[in-house]
Specification:
Elements (H helix, E strand, L loop, with lengths): L1 E10 L5 H12 L2 E6 L5 E7 L1 H13 L5 E10 L7 E3 L4
Parallel strand pairs: 2-5
Antiparallel strand pairs: 1-3, 1-4, 2-3
């Protein structure tokens, strides 16, 4: 099991990034969350098998149509286990 924290920068707010990511994450079978940050970036935690997490990370590097990802910072963190993928309030 792998869990990562990701911060994506660029034109990633106001383009459906979080809600599309929720669909992608659920299709991939991962757990975690995604939220906007006040600095204009999007932050997420994604947990699943290596292959599942890699699938979501690949999508996050591209984003939905209308977005423009300029940077994605990925940090491995301790898995927490279980849950569903959620869209959280802005932090």
């Amino acid at each position: 099991m792998r869990r990562v924290r990701v911060v994506v920068q660029g034109m990633v707010q106001g383009v459906g990034y979080r809600y599309t990511m929720r669909l992608i994450a659920r299709e991939a079978g991962v757990t975690g969350w995604v939220r906007n940050r006040y600095d204009g970036s999007v932050e997420a935690e994604v947990e699943g098998s290596d292959a599942q997490v890699d699938t979501v990370l690949a999508w996050m590097a591209e984003g939905p149509p209308g977005s423009r990802v300029t940077q994605a910072s990925v940090t491995d963190i301790e898995p927490s286990g279980g849950g569903v993928f959620q869209v959280l309030e802005t932090a």
